[in-house]
Amino acid sequence: MSIDSSQIIRATMRFIPLQGSKPELGAIDAAVDAQLINDLVIFLSRYNPDLAPEIYEAIAFVLVKTIGTLLWTSLSQEKIFRQQLVQETKRIVLSYLPSYFPRQT
Q1: Looking at residue 78, what DSSP letter applies?
Q2: C-alpha closest to that of 44 among 61, 30, 32, 27
Q3: 76 in helix, strand or coil?
């Protein structure tokens, strides 16, 4: 079973509206990121149980922060560029994950 980058991106997108310029949302944002990272660690560990726990945590951290930052940034862009940023985000995820989770045939 291969990891579907769309699942990861959709999960991250659910939490993006919580981000904003209000300082009081910073704690909420950090808590949501931590929960998403934790959930992603559990999700990823099912695909390759041979990795060390800190590897899963690092992978999840990279994914959450990368996807979240790029998609959050895309919201302030023109539609065509926003769509391209989403495509580039998918490309990054699809290039990164196979180094830890090879596609199964």
Answers
A1: -
A2: 61
A3: coil
pLDDT in tens, 13-42: 554 554 455 666 677 778 889 999 999 999
Cβ(13)–Cβ(75) below 8 Å: no
Q: Dig out the tokens for 13 from the structure.
A: 């997108």
Q: What is the pTM of this model?
A: 0.73
3-class state of residue 102 by DSSP: coil
- Classify residue 89 as left (phi > 0), alpha (psi -120 to 50) or beta: alpha
End-to-end CA distance of the chain: 8
Q: How many CA atoms lie within 13 A of 89 on its CB side?
A: 27
How far apart CA 72 and CA 26 sit, in angstroms, is 14
- Whether residue 82 contacts residue 75, with contact meaning beta carbons closer than 8 Å, is answered with yes
